[in-house]
Amino acid sequence: MEAGAVDLMLSPKQREQLVKFREKVSDVLQPYHNDYWLLRFLKARNFNLKKSESMFRKNVLWREENKISQLYSEYKEPEVLQKYKPGGKLGNAKDGRPVFLDPIGNVDFKGLLHSVTVSDATKFYIKTLESLQRDVISQTEKLKRQIVGVYYIVDMENLGHHHLWKPGVQFTTSVIQQCEQQYPELLHKVIVVRAPRMFPLAYSIVKPFLNEQTRKKVVVFKDDFESELLSVIDADLLPKYWGGNLVEDGDPMCPRTVSLAGKVPKEWYMTGRDLSVDSSQMTTTEIARGGTLQLTYKTSQCNSVLRYEFRTQEHDIGFGVKRLHDDGSKTPVVKTERHSCHLVPEIGELILEDPGTYIVKFDNSFSWSRSKKLSYWIELLEPDLEENDSKDEDNQGDEEEEEDDDFVQATEG
Question: How many CB atoms lie within 10 A of CB 381?
Fold first, then answer.
């Protein structure tokens, strides 16, 4: 759909702001940035041009830095997430909007965050949000009219005090912030069903992270919610457990359509297991409260690989990577974010596309009351270009070499 091709039913003042907004961000616009896309950022900031522009530019940068299109097409969640992730798409509502059902009361956040890294869990939720956003675009193209947002049904059955586990709450609020910042106005309506007595307490924790527009979209039902859901979606698309007609192999909850989450068995837990790197290779240090640790690595080759693994003894720590330029400026390669690596070791690798100097930062500046005991292992691997050239000339057709033979390890700067 071409930019500006949709009827957004705006007031003259709002349309004027939209035109000005498009002009202000014209240098970073992509083909898919139609008027509806831009309007979401304007609405999220109450049509304040300065705030909307800042939010939009940060989103463009975030999508680029995190390679969101690549994550969507290539990321595959760990097996434990495949088994115990929550929710699923129910198809499209009567008005054409996508519908997602999330039995969040069944989610064992403690089990999941003991079984996968926070990075993997975050990628899973980002991929889900990206998928829903793409569904909106797809429906718009299919129906040849602008579809605005999705219906998000949240089943709170089995919500308990275990859901108030602090790392789980921190992770949940971080996902909500990602949704509000990077996918503004994605939600058309949030329908909460089977809300238990402790729901007001749980909602009071996440409510500050919802903007005013999102709060207005939330409706809550303790029971008798079926008619509300059936006013949104056809009965044949809604599982019988939630008031529809859909049944799978006699199961009214339709677990193939809606992943039901559930308690994660402890055999999946990573906590207490040995790190993948031998402890003798780890460097252990203490980062003072309010302090940071910065490590510098230099590479002269394109597409070098920075591999890392780290864990704290207690509490979370920030981690990020920046590229240092000759003029002293720094460009984020991995945005600094807090990781609950006291629960599960954080393990990853980063492709450094350009040669240069890179700074790895462990950040405890957010904590003014606790120091953090950190164990980390980092190595920088550079392609051995001369060796590769030699292989191309002397050993054409022989492609059975070990992958590690293609790299030499660089020293820590």
Answer: 19
**C-beta neighbour count of 187 within 10 angstroms:** 20
Check whether 302 has a pLDDT greater than 90: no
Domains of the chain: 12-65 (1.10.8.20), 77-268 (3.40.525.10), 279-389+404-410 (2.60.120.680)
Which DSSP string corresponds to 77-101? --HHHHHH-EEEEEEE-TTS-EEEE
Q: 159, 155, 174, 41: which is closest to 102 by C-alpha?
A: 155
CA angle 225, 261, 109 (to 5 degrees): 105
Report residue 256's pLDDT band, with 50, 70 and 90 as the boundaries.
Answer: very high
> pLDDT grade, residue 341 (50/70/90)?
confident
Three-state SS string over 232-264 comes to HCCHHHCEHHHCCCECECCECCCCCCCEECECC
Global pTM exceeds 0.85? no
Written as six digits, the tokens of 130 are: 């990206």
Encoding tokens for residue 62?
Answer: 């975030």
Q: Pick the closest to residue 258 from 154, 382, 188 (CA basis).
A: 154
Q: Are 315 and 170 in contact (CB under 8 A)?
A: no
Reduce the DSSP state of residue 56 to 3 states and report it: helix
**Angle CA(147)–CA(48)–CA(183) in degrees, nearest 5?**
40
pLDDT digits (tens, 9 = 90+) for 237-252: 999 999 999 999 999 9
**What one-letter code names the amino acid at 271?**
T
